[in-house]
Design a protein that fits this description.
Layout (H helix, E strand, L loop, with lengths): L2 E7 L11 H4 L4 H14 L2 E7 L3 H14 L2 E5 L8 H8 L5 E5 L21 E4 L4 H13 L4
Parallel strand pairs: 1-2, 1-3, 3-4, 4-5
Helix pairs in contact: 2-5, 3-4
This protein binds 1,3,4-trihydroxy-5-OXO-cyclohexanecarboxylic acid.
Length: 147
């Protein structure tokens, strides 16, 4: 059976493609899922794309990932900058974790420069636009040893 990768998305990312397109672009989360799926399939991986506006739901999914996922790609949205609870949940997950930000957060407001999730992430993508997710999937395949 192929290794499963969770792609977790936090608050407001359901509005991707509609929300501040000058910053986040025109692609939807569904489009992102299609691009990632292509990369995952060619690397022999499978994926589960999830989005929630609720911190507790994201934590529950990270707990689920302990049972059935080989790796996690996560864009926690604004929770990146506030959530020690998400950091703690990721610290309880054994596989690789890649943090993704569509925008180049370090060029933006100072409050976006701090990430609790980066204390756990094995790699961090920022400023690659929505393409960053597919790049993260490619790197995930590399970390997991490919097909
Ligand atoms: C984001 C950056 C965060 O600062 C912001 O709150 C988001 C999206 C990004 O993908 O660039 O919601 O994670």
């Amino acid at each position: 059976m192929s290794k499963l990768i969770y792609i977790l998305n936090g608050p407001n990312l359901n509005l991707l493609g509609k929300r501040q397109p000058d910053i986040y672009g025109h692609e939807t989360l569904e489009d992102v899922g299609v691009h990632c799926q292509k990369v995952a399939t060619s690397a022999g991986l499978s994926q589960k794309m999830l989005q929630s506006n609720h911190e507790g739901q994201i934590i529950d999914w990270i707990h689920d990932a302990r049972e059935d996922a080989a790796g996690i790609i996560i864009n926690p949205g604004a929770l990146t900058h506030t959530s020690i609870a998400i950091l703690d949940a990721l610290n309880a997950f054994d596989g690789p974790v890649i943090e993704v930000h569509i925008s180049q957060v370090h060029k933006r407001e100072a409050f976006r420069h701090k990430s609790f999730v980066s204390l756990r992430a094995d790699a961090v993508m920022a400023g690659f636009g929505t393409h960053g997710y597919a790049l993260a999937m490619q790197h995930m395949a590399h970390l997991l040893g490919g097909k």
